[in-house]
Design brief:
0% strand; 3 helices; mainly alpha; globular
């Protein structure tokens, strides 16, 4: 999945984390920007918005492929 984030200023872990925060919790781009600033990462909310717009579908597809299917879960009774 790292090849999607080539030629970006920030590492793929930061990009993925920002996208995950936005779509998992009801946070605004500015909230995520503040959270990153607390961690020492200087990033604008506009950059986070662009990442979410650009990589959202790719991230969703990746998560869907990793999701456990009901047939894979063993039921213990």
């Amino acid at each position: 999945m790292n090849h999607f984030y080539k030629r970006h200023r920030y590492p793929s872990e930061i990009i993925c984390h920002c996208i995950w925060l936005y779509y998992t919790f009801s946070l605004s781009y500015c909230d995520i920007q503040k959270m990153m600033q607390y961690r020492g990462i200087d990033i604008t909310y506009e950059t986070i918005r662009q990442w979410c717009h650009k990589f959202a579908q790719t991230s969703a597809n990746h998560l869907r492929r990793r999701q456990v299917k009901p047939a894979d879960i063993a039921v213990a009774i």
